[in-house]
Amino acid sequence: MQRLLIVSNRLPLTIQERKGDLHVELSVGGLATGLSSWYKSCHSIWIGWAGIGRKKIKEETDIVARLLSENCYPVSLSQYNVEAYYHGFCNRTIWPLFHYFPLYAEYSEDFWQAYERVNTAFANVVAEVAKPNDIIWIHDYHLMLLPKLLRERLPKATVGFFLHIPFPSFEIFRLLPWRKQILEGLLGADLVGFHTYDYTGHFLDSVHRLLGYEVAMGQITAADRVVRSDAFPMGINYEQFSSAAQDPKVQKERKRFHKKLGDCQVILSVDRLDYTKGIPQRLRAFSVFLNRNPKFKRKVIFILLVVPSRTGVERYMQLKKQVDGLVGEINGKHGTIGWMPVWYLYRFLPFHSLAALYSLADVALVTPLRDGMNLVAKEYTATKTDGKGVLILSETAGSAQELGEAIIINANNQEEIAQALAKALEMPEQEQIERNRIMQKRLRRYNVVRWANEFVDKLLSTKKLQREMEEKALTYEMQRKLASDFQESDKALLLLDYDGTLVPFSPKPAEAMPGAKLLRLLERLTKNPRTEVVLISGRDKDTLEKWFGGLNVGLVAEHGAWIKEKGGGWETIETLTSEWKEEVYPILESWVDRTPGSFIEEKEFSLVWHYRKADPSLGELRARELINNLSNTIANLNLQVLEGSKVVEVKNTDINKGRAALIWISREKWDFVLAIGDDWTDEDTFKALPSTAWSIKVGFGASAARFSLSSPSKATSLLRKMVGGKM
Ligand code: ADQ
User: Fold this and answer.
1) Is residue 270 lining ligand 1, measured as CB closer than 6 Å?
2) Which CATH number fits the domain 4-231, given the four candidates 3.40.50.300, 3.40.50.620, 3.40.50.2000, 3.50.80.10?
3) What is the pTM of this model?
4) What's residue 32's pLDDT?
5) pLDDT in tens, 123-155
6) CATH number of the domain at 581-652, please?
7) Is residue 371 annotated as part of the catalytic site, yes or no?
């Protein structure tokens, strides 16, 4: 049976010291709450920090035994590391920055080093526990370096990563001094998951801009492998909450609360004490609501349930004081004898009490300034089995994207929240039921089990994709066979693309020029009279002439519009018209105006819009728009639009590399044919080849080529091997 290794900062169990004794307890938090049900139903091991220092763990063997019996494997951390890593880098650098509080973020080299140390400690433990077939699922911002550290230790491992907090936009993320290390750390995983498409988009954008990797449809072509990224909105244990109202323990608790609340309508909020949750803003909005709606005085009670969190961090202590003060202020200002508008509970509540509060609350007021997902909004909705109750939800919570039937508000807009409260308290029952039923249906379907299964399924399918790519990889053995076939052949044809195939794709023309070493290699290949070498490129004929005119090779320019036989002159394949350019040129010009840094290149039979010098994201967006626009314009012009690396090219349909390649292929009875190319314009060449030919794609991705090599340097070393050199 395949095992699942869940790795997170904290174990779902916490060891706490009380009066000198150590106790094992369930820990709080979205992840522990959400995953624990799923975790118990599978063969899984949970690896994480148990909440006590290294020394204690060593001393208390029975505690460790208890953890192991629960399939929990503790990582021990020194007090200093916990301080600098958890209270430091995690909670004073990443947490504020990723929640759009850049001014709260502290950038300390000591914190960073502790973060690296702790991630390494985790990597050592996971590598010790992991078996070859395991699925390793790493959770959250505490362990963003771990995927890469594990990949170094276990190159073949199946590793998924899920971020529970938002991934911020590039403009925020770039502020982090260690941004590249974080991205590289994450890309050690095979799949990187987020709660929403927005976070996924932000991550892909940063990967593209900071590391320069190609990104398409959630697939990243990293240095030596493909990594995927996608959105998986975390669900809840729906059954647990929807059946709670029937639980006698919950009903008893509910009655107890009712007695104290009388006939008042109840507004409820539940969160960890955190500045991202918008608690002071929410309290002020409640005060505005009472000012604007005096008729609700003595008719409504706001239960503010806050669970202590990160109590050692200064900013959280300040927030606690601020909330305490505001509660006192509001109760002092609006309260009367016998009516206290805000009931403030600062503690963790057991499940039956929490469920009782959810089930009796008329309104849930969930107003985080930023929240990765927010499970409270989902739990409240799931608990309302009679359909009655209104959810007010901030648009900056990830869950707002799934809970559109809630009253959606801006958490900074006190007037809007006040109006939403009045609307919620007066909403007709029928409307409440209609809204909740739609959301409940969605939450029941996409529950925490489905969430976890979808993540793991996608992780396994990513692994399968990587394997298929690996299977296509031209092994060392096959390379030797190819070289010996070539050496034994009587008539060999080599069809070689240039940019991205023999040299890395480079946006700078000077860097794309062939060096002396490459020219020597091509010359050696052409020395043998039994071999014919053809360079098939998208570049214009003048450039090819300048670079390769001195070699004894065939040349194909502009994807086949021009060809030059060995020792001959340039010829076009057929008479082609270029009148269409008058129609297309002005369109490209307007794209140049809208995309700073882009420019037009005019070739004899094609027009090319280049955006390699433009901002990458803008360039890609504009390229998509241009392709859409052109496909309407050129419908009856016998033209085609090609998308290459940072270019969009328009040319006659009749021109393609495959057609040009056929001129050579059909001329002789070759007993060895090799084609190497890297992008989709080379696919026409691959398709034109006889079935016995060797075809190689440089890079990853779907291709008609039979084999693949990871980089241009691998391709040139293969050619070197063919002429008898070292690979
Ligand atoms: P959190 O910031 O902890 O989680 P949330 O998603 O609301 O936020 O989860 C809190 C959990 O703790 C809920 O399951 C809730 O029932 C429980 N809880 C809160 N207060 C409680 C109290 N006083 N007593 C008892 N239980 C209480 C992080 C991210 C979120 C993301 C989750 C899951 O910050 O954005 O939704 O992880 O990915």
Assistant:
1) yes
2) 3.40.50.2000
3) 0.79
4) 62
5) 999 999 999 999 999 999 999 999 999 999 999
6) 3.30.70.1020
7) no
